[in-house]
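User: quick one
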Amino acid sequence: MARPDGRSPLQLRPVSLECDVVSHAEGSCLIVQGRTKVLIVATLEQKTPPFLRDTGEGWITAEYGMLPRATLERSPREAAKGKQTGRSLEIQRLIGRALRGVADRRTFPEWTVTLDCDVLVADAGTRCASVTGAWVALALALETLRKRGGLKKPPFREAVAAISVGVLPDRERPEGMVALDLDYIEDSTAHVDLNVVGTSTGRYVEVQGTAEREPFDDKRLREMLTVAKRGCRRLFRAQRKALEGRIPEDWLPPA
Amino acid sequence: MARPDGRSPLQLRPVSLECDVVSHAEGSCLIVQGRTKVLIVATLEQKTPPFLRDTGEGWITAEYGMLPRATLERSPREAAKGKQTGRSLEIQRLIGRALRGVADRRTFPEWTVTLDCDVLVADAGTRCASVTGAWVALALALETLRKRGGLKKPPFREAVAAISVGVLPDRERPEGMVALDLDYIEDSTAHVDLNVVGTSTGRYVEVQGTAEREPFDDKRLREMLTVAKRGCRRLFRAQRKALEGRIPEDWLPPA
Amino acid sequence: MARPDGRSPLQLRPVSLECDVVSHAEGSCLIVQGRTKVLIVATLEQKTPPFLRDTGEGWITAEYGMLPRATLERSPREAAKGKQTGRSLEIQRLIGRALRGVADRRTFPEWTVTLDCDVLVADAGTRCASVTGAWVALALALETLRKRGGLKKPPFREAVAAISVGVLPDRERPEGMVALDLDYIEDSTAHVDLNVVGTSTGRYVEVQGTAEREPFDDKRLREMLTVAKRGCRRLFRAQRKALEGRIPEDWLPPA
Amino acid sequence: MARPDGRSPLQLRPVSLECDVVSHAEGSCLIVQGRTKVLIVATLEQKTPPFLRDTGEGWITAEYGMLPRATLERSPREAAKGKQTGRSLEIQRLIGRALRGVADRRTFPEWTVTLDCDVLVADAGTRCASVTGAWVALALALETLRKRGGLKKPPFREAVAAISVGVLPDRERPEGMVALDLDYIEDSTAHVDLNVVGTSTGRYVEVQGTAEREPFDDKRLREMLTVAKRGCRRLFRAQRKALEGRIPEDWLPPA
Amino acid sequence: MARPDGRSPLQLRPVSLECDVVSHAEGSCLIVQGRTKVLIVATLEQKTPPFLRDTGEGWITAEYGMLPRATLERSPREAAKGKQTGRSLEIQRLIGRALRGVADRRTFPEWTVTLDCDVLVADAGTRCASVTGAWVALALALETLRKRGGLKKPPFREAVAAISVGVLPDRERPEGMVALDLDYIEDSTAHVDLNVVGTSTGRYVEVQGTAEREPFDDKRLREMLTVAKRGCRRLFRAQRKALEGRIPEDWLPPA
Amino acid sequence: MARPDGRSPLQLRPVSLECDVVSHAEGSCLIVQGRTKVLIVATLEQKTPPFLRDTGEGWITAEYGMLPRATLERSPREAAKGKQTGRSLEIQRLIGRALRGVADRRTFPEWTVTLDCDVLVADAGTRCASVTGAWVALALALETLRKRGGLKKPPFREAVAAISVGVLPDRERPEGMVALDLDYIEDSTAHVDLNVVGTSTGRYVEVQGTAEREPFDDKRLREMLTVAKRGCRRLFRAQRKALEGRIPEDWLPPA
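Assistant: Done. Structure below.
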């Protein structure tokens, strides 16, 4: 069964990662994945949160927001409502964990990198696109630090990227169809939704699977994980392409 | 290698589920799991959120909070700070999804059940204990509705419970030891933390795995899922025992 | 005229005070008075507010909250609404004043004890029960401090407890009937409501009388105060019983 | 022993009540008591809170605030901090109860009177001055309603006013000196602080006594109540003088 | 065409400036302009915001608020709503800029003057009246500082005052009538609204013109500015009269 | 004297207006002016605020925000701080007034257009760029409405755009140099800052001039206004070019 936009089940949406779109920032990246667009800007500051005092470790944190009309229907502006939604808070915690999962923070003690991920257009997959793009912006910011002499060793153990996989209803198969990188229409009908934060050595930093309608079993989970890894490999190639020549060769994800 | 409290790696902490601890509420349950204690109270109200108008479906939602001194160190009171933490919001969204994942909400159109999960003592595993106990409180509330004539068919497709699994550092095994139902001391040193919301037919409503230190691979994930299911089976027996004689036999999890 | 639950006018509801229900806290107490249940947890911290700098005095403060479904109808969660109600703020200020009224804070300079009073079930009288129980939790926390060598002298001048008295409508007496320790049904029909914070030498730290319907005169006020003192004496015995063997003999209220 | 401003122990500060200071409002009053100044403005609106639907009763409510530099030291503006202090909330609840305690709200069904009490200068006694002045502003607003034909019967059972009494340290008497109507300097050294909301028939709507240092006994309480009543009588005369000719003769407090 | 209150087009409302109405404050002023009344209180504190550290400059800032029933219809209390309105924030920023525009802040390094402008009655023109009165309160506060020896040179380059000018609909002239110092009725029908913050040498610190209905052209703007300056001259005379004898002669606006 | 980026005093920065950058929205526009970038998205909703009920008029409103790292130094996220800054509120009020100043809202009764103006990069002039771009996005949204049959007549009386003018310090001229369209470096040293919202017939909707250091006189104001109009004419040409072929010819600003 065909997908609404004609993609095959395991096909990613077109992905582009544009570097340094905010020239005054230490690192920045615009990720466009299908119609979804997220602007990620990295800020480097010489400070760390209190719990890291005297640990010799730096810090990486993220904030996430969505412009009011990023979605089909306009949502109230979070700043006007006076608080971030639970969804925003949950996503920004995820992005921070994903990046910290592959970075060696002892290489930049006393520094904090803040990744602001702001969704300009949301056609599903914004948390995953934020992770994928945030790693690029983080790499650019740490390269800025390296050039200033503040980084002695490679700051990453490997690269990180994220992708969604879902189980879509399928007239021909009652158990549904596993599909990679859902867009909004697909996402709103999916039976199961899995977000995978994968690393360039094929491991996981985060696996979040949710049954939206029907619980899922081990077999289904394995299938989805396999598909997700395939998607991550594509994303690592896109990250590599975007960053080649901009950061040291040995920080890049494998070709 | 032994665990701090002497348990074997795959051993659950002692679990008790006390029903109807708040007699004026439609359903309530105190779950004690090791030192962790969560009070869950269900409220039944004849209303549904706007997006369910005319859908013939009822609603299930949850709120989560922690008393200020539930933890070893006192945390500021959320009401005094003026907002729920991101963590609280994330957890209450998870609890709601878990319960909705096994309920047939068409059996109680126009009704909302709100599950208030308040942690009296936190020794890790509070989100999982909340899910396990909330299913019990929800069943009791729906039984109240049934007795009042407002429920025509069994409201559950199956039961739901949740448990954590982690990978603990182990002097004898560099890859660490998989352990069930972490307490606070274990949780703060775990390499990987997996929360599994499982159903009584052995499926998943939610799988949330996070690498706290080192990314994990497929093999490790499979191991942890196997252990988690074993824990869930124990929890379903505890739920069954607590609810026997209080709700219809065919709503109970299997013996 | 009989009271709804069959008590005589001057009869207290059954009271129990269970100590150390939160084992990791410096002091804690669950007070059950009729159906009302309040969990009080004391936290001991080596700090004082700025206005006590260099005064040689410690500090005692309280926070009060109610679980959303402590009441017959569920109330919105204070943390979700983004602020404590005026009622909560008023009550926690009262609890703090009550405790400070009998403590000699020069005996624990540089220390703050915070009493978290959280109402699990509310059947009226929660502020009074909080005061009565908070004194117990405070005594336990100061005993913890004493054992650690941080307290050189007895920290209390006397004990403190609180009780409500009301004037209930009475078919046989137009001026109504004075009754001790109102429950929710009584409280919502009372003409006058008096909360008395009394000390074990028969004095007052706080007297708060409010005419809910008809103003009251001096004679009525005297009657109510007499009844309240009788109630307080019962509460001091309950406190003594709960604390005997747990704190030094000379801190206990008289038998 | 003399008081700082030369008053005798039972002497009130000079009190003036100026009516209709805000000409566009339905009722208003500026009360000046010593250096304390409170502006009270009554607003009449044809609406009632939901819980009064179909009860045939109107509503009276109050809000209280203090200008940032009403006090000796400037306090942060409540609106800028984003919330009213617990103290403000407690006081505005008291003012509302005081007025409702003497009004027959069945005489103005479907109407709400809101009393805004804003402290321009605070030299202690602001809550009491607010009550005394708010009764005047309320009477003026209800007279406006009467003139518009919206009030058929006298709306008050009697008048209400409030005054503070304290026990001041006194070199000659260890038990201290009972003094009426404390100013700021006295208030900050008082052993006991009693606020009495009295009615023109010599009864009480509210009695709030607090031991700031040493608990007080029945004898002391009786003494203070006697003094407070004497103060209230003076205030009723001031209210009468301010309102004579402005409201119907039979609403006035006795001469 | 006549104005509602009989004034000629270029006539100011009666203005009075009463000094030192809050005796404990370093400076204060009640400005009454027609029915509009604003109380301005200056607070002098030995501190400056971080961005002025080591600059040798003091700071001047303002806060603005309106009592709930300052207006014809009661508005919700800002403190109860939990935030200042955008209008309040905008106005208080304007007042601060106006005062800083004529002060030489190097004459009082390390000091901050805060001007609290609270509107007791609002009949339009409250922001302008706040500026005019705030300069008076500021001068009084700086005179307090001078007397304490903390000010070596005159702190002002000149005086500042503000006035509104509008274009009112006029049956006889389609282009409308330019009128000085609008009251509320005029303000709500004006085509154009211009607020001018002028100095005593005839210059501007701030010019804010807004077309409420029809855009305006250069000729109209010039006309309005000429009228505004005329109004400012009247206000400088009022300031001079209010301050004569209270501050050094050379700080006063010219006669 | 040359400007930091080599422009002549009356030269605008390069301006581009890209239409329909958010394809699912009713209208959108990315305005780039020098390094400043603002994304404006228009939302069309069939509703109006209460005060417009039964007036036959539609509504236009704007919201303004800045991404945290739009500026050289990162600012805290407004949504995380829990409120919009006073500056944001002031600017969004200005944008709304500017657009309403040239629209005939009777042509789209019952409809509201919301303009979300989000600053991606801020190099000064963001409020002016927001106005200029918002008119474009508004025109596109109203064209969407026209195509759906909801607009019978041209909705604009003329076009609107905004530009800043400042007086920069100039070594050769003590009175400084008037310069058009300041960037951040210029803005932070300017003596006077004037924002002009001009219309395509050469009139003003809003004129906001502020002396940042030294008050300014009439001559200087006239000079600045002349320069601002010149800038506006350039902006109308840019708007025309961006919208040609996208909206009806008779809505366009003149060539």
